[in-house]
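Action item from last week, closing it out:
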Amino acid sequence: MAWRGQLNRNIKELRFLFSTDYCDQVISDLFCVSFIENHYKHMKMNNPRLPILIREAIGIEPQLWARYDMGDERGIHLDGYIEEQISEALDDLTK
């Protein structure tokens, strides 16, 4: 989890998006929620000035977005990802 200390240096904003529709909620949404529950505290402690947004909506697939300098954004769809893969995706976004 090399991303823990690098978030504030490389990323200006981090957004997690996932579905809250329990009838339509898939396993990857649950892994996204689990990742946030397990890692949010550490991300915020290590990067207190970094805005970490958690957006819940109905009928969307889980996504992770990072905003960099000059408004540049990159996103990764987390559909089918487990917690370890979400951590790897976040690591990719910090590079």
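Closing note: The first strand starts at residue 13 and ends at 19.
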